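Async update (no meeting this week)

Hi team, since we skipped the sync, here's where things stand on the single-chain job. The sequence we agreed to prioritize is pasted below, unchanged from the tracker. I ran it this morning and attached the output directly underneath so nobody has to dig for it. Comments welcome in thread, and please keep replies under the output.
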Amino acid sequence: MTTLRTKIAMGLYASVATFMTPFVKYHLTKRIKRGKEHPVRFTEKLGHVSQTRPKSKLVWIHGASVGESLSILPLLETFHNLQPDLKFLVTTGTVTSARLMEERLPPYAMHQFVPVDLPLAIGRFLKNWRPDIALVVESELWPNMIFQTKARNIPLVLLNGRMSQKSAKSWGKASFFIQDLLNQFDLILAQSATDVRRYTELGAPHVKKQSNLKFAAAPLSYKQDDFDKLSTQIGTLPVWFASSTHRGEEVFLAETHEKLREKIPNLLCIIAPRHPERGPEILNEFQRKNLPLTLRSEGKGITPDTSIYLADTLGELGLFYALSPVVVIGGSLLRKGGQNLLEPARQNCAIICGPEMQNFEEICNEMVENHAVIKLTQAEDVTTQLEALLLNEPHQQKLAQKAAVYVKDRGQEINDVAREILQKIPVG
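Output:
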């Protein structure tokens, strides 16, 4: 039951949101010019539909962006295998995620942009689509969306739930509100024991630990022609890959690479920044420090003289995981919380991560216990560990194999997740 304080807070929130509607419309049209919104389908963000609701039972799954939307693809397939008559509506918020969904969604699923959290937009969306169940992926806690969905007696499940320490602290300042908000969910499937504890402490009544959906994801795709071309260019050069790096890590790893080349001549380092648009910034930084750099975005290939190759392009992580037997995880050397360990594990890479893996803490700890990753106690140790791996191919292969086995075994748990959710769909 929603408390009076929450009802008052939601009344104020809805009133402000309604008042802001004209400004939101104007903001959306401005974003079109910058390529941030779809020029035709942007009205979907105001709750308008561009497709017809299927007559069968409809499962609505919302994932904010690329990572969340890609993580649900194996779940869609599992749902379909268990209950072939179901149809699916997938909503996301970004142009990039929409493009990926158009390419990768199966025939029994469709994509719409999620409406902005305005009362009229959410109401219009729910009236048109009438989902039989709503699944929210990870941490999208939009009040109007959640309360209006539940008000229509639509079962709500928070899937792959994640609650960071920072978010838990922020929500804790409005404990009455977050407790009522989380109480709208019929089930919260959290991705780690730490997330279970944080949701429970915030007052969520129906919380369970599930397997992280990312375990069941397919290997990252890449173009075979690109792989063949770069593989030929690399030839017999020893190579390592720094994946999804953040500001400050590129120079540190480049300096590490220069030290390694003293013992491993012709060693090639590939660096893929988390935000590829930082390519020119990284180039300027390297030039100031007299560090060598070749940019992929400039169409340059790899030659025997290439020392550091900057993969400042979108959507090519899978390509460089396939090319590189040894990977250093970006975001883990500085206080950025780390990046996805499972993607390189799925592509048979030997993985090194720094000490800052808060975003994937439980997965990282499990992989350490299974001897499936090398976790540094301090960032400065990366040189020693890289040298040890690069000069010991059997050690490389053993580490990569254990990582691949770990992610494959955990990926089987998605069947249990799907069955539990299907039980929440109303009969009839």
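Quick observations from my side:
Residues 4-211+413-422 form a domain with the Rossmann fold fold (CATH 3.40.50.11720).
The CA atoms of residues 90 and 111 lie 5 Å apart.
Reply here if anything looks off.
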